[in-house]
Amino acid sequence: MFFTKFARVVAWILLVGSVTRIVTGIGIATEILGPYEEALRRYGGRAESSGAIIDRGVYALLIAIALGALAEISSSVRGFRE
How many other CB atoms sit within 10 Å of the CB of residue 35? Predict the structure, then answer.
C-alpha cells in the first residue's frame, strides 16, 4: 500500500512539473517570456533550444501517465484481494 500511495504522489509531482516545463518551453518559443536568447538563458538552464525543453517535458509527461496508470492498477488489484 505504501508504494501505491508513493507512486501516486510521484506521478502527480511529475505531471505538474512536466506541464510547467512544456508551458515554459512554449513561452520561450513564442517569446512571451522575453526575447528568445535571453528567455532561453534565464528559464532554460543548459537547454540548447526551446524544443529541447518541450521534448523533456513531453517525456516526463509520458512517464507520469505511465506511473499513474501503474498506481491505479496496483490499487485496483489490492482492492480485489481484500
Answer: 10
Q: Residue 61 in contact with residue 1, Cβ under 8 Å?
A: no
pTM value is: 0.87
User: Using an 8 Å Cβ cutoff, are 43 and 54 in contact?
Assistant: no
* DSSP string for residues in 37-71: HHHHHHHSTT-SSHHHHHHHHHHHHHHHHHHHHHH
Cβ(68)–Cβ(6) below 8 Å: no
Neighbours of 13 (CB within 10 A): 11
What's the pLDDT tens digit per position in 20-47? 999 999 999 999 999 999 999 999 989 9
